[in-house]
Amino acid sequence: MINSQIVKTAYANIYSEPRFNSEMVTQALFFESLKVVSDQDNWLEVSLWDGYIGYVHKFYLSNNDSYGESVLNLTSQYTDLYIDKNFETSVLTVPFGATVKYYDEIENGYKINIDSKEYYIKKIVNNHDLSKRQKVLNYCRMLMGSPYLWGGKTPFGYDCSGLIQSIYKMVEINFRRDTSDQIQDSRFASISVNDAQPGDIIFFDFEGNGVDHVGIWYGDDMVVHCSGQVKVQSIHDDSSKKLLDYIIDVKSLGDFLDE
Length: 259
Known about the structure:
By secondary structure, the chain is mainly beta. 11% of the residues lie in helices and 40% in strands.
């Protein structure tokens, strides 16, 4: 049995059982390496980088292991993958948050290999001069309006914890997948909401059964979160549930965002 495979489509849905009508629990993004746990006909049980385990259909995957060594994070909302180095014919749109390995850098882009075929990614203007905190807020603004999707981790659809994991991975801060695990992360100190800084994490309990929602402190008493869609909302907005009344923890990421 092959020990690992990579996602060759824009993203791959990961299910709770080896069938499409089971619950989608998360997603793996383009070029993500999945560790194979077991093989069940057309399905594989896999383990993701964050320790999540689920089932993925084999048609999402490639077992080609010639990828290159240099790493590139794709931080545009969508990135086109081309079959020609002149960037004229796009064959795939890759969502924000994917990380690829390239084996050659050309004048205006990067060359990658998947399924023994060459593809090209166009270079984009980078934001290396921005702090990690500024990058987080930029990604929040870019992803505004992305719809809610249970188990989602792309601009085509996020759930609240998937949004957190995807954004912070692009500034080299790895979170667990579920909100119940994210709130227990001992790396981050709990602080008062009055001390929150942009980029800190806010946890909520809407149903009275423990943490069930998470967002990003945006500043000026505003939170970016995915509820219906990715949006920015005042904690004092009482048009539905007043966010301030349901905050149960605030985590400071200062030691990681300001390094």
